[in-house]
TrEMBL record:
The lineage of its organism: Bacteria, Pseudomonadati, Pseudomonadota, Gammaproteobacteria, Vibrionales. Keywords: Acyltransferase, Transferase. It comes from Vibrio rhizosphaerae. Residues 1-156 form the N-acetyltransferase domain. It comes from the Bacteria. It holds the Pfam family Acetyltransf_1. This is GNAT family N-acetyltransferase. Signal peptide: none annotated. InterPro entries: Acyl_CoA_acyltransferase, Bact_Acetyltransf, GNAT_dom. The keyword Zinc does not apply.
Length: 156
């Protein structure tokens, strides 16, 4: 298994994984997520052109892309009552359906933590949907705790 920075040439493999996580989210929360579409390619290509404040890692196993993680550094400098420490925010982490529960996600998160610490991050934050119980359990096993809940209500 090899963890490396994603490149534009990885786009087709990334789209396969993106569709897996996209369908999972669309099927469980269609009020919040659109069905995967051709528009996803441009989104991921733009993400691949990251700067120093962003991270885009992927995992290869036998020359096949089996997972990826995106993250970015942020820091509050405008709201006086919110801490102003550097924060690493994980955007997306997805492991191929056939390779889940094999330690790949843990290795990606460890690589992300190393990257975040090297940039002075004091915290790593992420959002996980309530329907995704397996992801919640995974993050809890890594020491993550609930900090807030995002609530919504449909307006008719």
């Amino acid at each position: 298994m090899k963890i490396r920075h994603a490149e534009v040439t990885d786009i087709d493999a990334l789209l396969v994984l993106s569709e897996q996580i996209g369908m999972l989210h669309f099927e469980n929360a269609p009020f919040a997520f659109n069905k995967p579409s051709a528009a996803d390619k441009l989104f991921w290509l733009n993400m691949l052109n990251h700067d120093e404040s962003s991270l885009f890692l992927l995992v290869e196993s036998d020359r096949q892309v089996v997972g990826f993680l995106t993250a970015m550094m942020t820091q509050n400098d405008t709201i006086p009552f919110i801490v102003d420490c550097p924060i690493c925010r994980v955007g997306t982490i997805v492991i191929d359906e056939k390779h889940r529960a094999s330690g790949i996600g843990t290795k990606l998160m460890a690589a992300c933590e190393h990257w975040a610490k090297s940039r002075g991050a004091a915290q790593i934050r992420l959002e996980v949907m309530t329907f995704n119980q397996s992801a919640q359990k995974f993050y809890q096993q890594l020491g993550f705790q609930d900090q807030s809940h995002i609530m919504y209500r449909h307006l008719d």
